[in-house]
Amino acid sequence: MSQEDLSLKNIRTQLDKAWQNVWEHFYLPSTSLIYDFVFSQEHEHRFDCLPTAEEVRNQLPNPCGWGTGMEDSTINNGAMLALICDRYLVTGEKEMFEAAEKMYRGLKACGTVHGVPGFVARSICPEDGKSVYNNSSRDQYTHYVHGLWKFYRSQLSTPEIKEEIRQLLSDVAYFMDKSVSPENDYCILMANGKPGVVACHMWSEEKETAIHRLSRLPMCYAGAYAVTGDRYFYDQCMKYLPSALEPQRQMWMRPYVAYTLFQTVCALEVLLETMTEESECCAKIRKVMEDCSERSLYNNMQAFLNAERASFSEPEGYKDWRVLKWLDEGGYMVPQQERSVWNNAQFERECGEAILVQLMTPGYRLTELQKHLFKEMVVKRSSIPYYSENSHGKITLMAAFWKLLLHNQF
């Protein structure tokens, strides 16, 4: 690729297209949510294959909504809200006020539409605007708390919204009080009051459990403390945080997928900024963030190598989940999209996430090679048709770009 292809002007042009793409194709105004993927190149039919309200009420095809396009809207909105806050710090664009409020409205709805205070739904059914899948995950809670926390601290939120966020994050903390207990196997409760089944463990007494899981629970309390100043939330955070930061929890025995590292650093960022009076904890948090950054080097290089080997010339589109083969994953039947579709989405997503891990780590500097590979990924992904992509991949690439500019590392 030429120097012009990799210039700031061209990279910004490509990511402005990605920004427009997310809002035009993946965002639904009626729910204020970004859905995972689209099923049709015809704009008015792009969400026709999302689950109906009846299917969601019957928890089809599974209580997570996996494989349906309705599984990760909270992650999408939370990550998008965080990048909007960063973009505003770089540009001061007034349109970021409206963009941030749209993302916030969707997150607020995922935390309230079901009538279970503190439960964070993965998404909302467009057909009736209220039906949700029962099973959430610690991933959803991580981006929900992180996004709301960043928005609260930004100049983009109003006094009225700040008051609402105080309630939303307090609800999450109290929900953790009720959920995370030995009786529930330390799992987040589902919307129906039963312990979650997959990706819902928030704590463990086992010493070998790594911090990528354990950081999320104290983060939920830290987020509530940061916006309310209520000492109860601080005390609850410190009930878990020192144990989570024990040396044996910081052992990383294998490569982790990039989203796990990214979500861990999102949790640690909230904890680091909130727990300022615990200097020993802060030093340990920084050490874990540095460990995450070292490991994300592998993810960064692997994502780029995978993208180099992939063929984007004739990508498959996402298909109606009802006609796909369903396979057992973690006890749930999950519709299986074409592997080439998932690969296209995963490569760009992992590239953005891996760089975000490093840029969110205090004092970390990317190498020139990493920056070069990131720019090449942005140019490469610009040729991929939107109907074969996943929205989160675009979001993490955009987030990495604005983080690079914010830290003067482009």
How would you describe this protein?
This protein is mainly α and 410 residues long. It has a single domain, classed as Glycosyltransferase. The strands form 2 sheets. A two-stranded antiparallel ribbon has the order 1-2. β3 (326-329) and β4 (332-335) form a beta hairpin. It is 56% helix and 3% strand. The longest helix is centred in the C-terminal third of the chain and has 31 residues, at 279-309. α10 runs antiparallel to α11. The chain is built from 14 helices and 4 strands. The protein is globular, with a radius of gyration of 20 Å.
Secondary-structure blueprint:
Elements: H1 8-26, E1 27-28, E2 33-34, H2 53-57, H3 73-91, H4 95-112, H5 138-153, H6 159-179, H7 211-214, H8 216-228, H9 231-244, H10 258-274, H11 279-309, E3 326-329, E4 332-335, H12 339-359, H13 368-381, H14 391-406
Antiparallel strand pairs: 1-2, 3-4
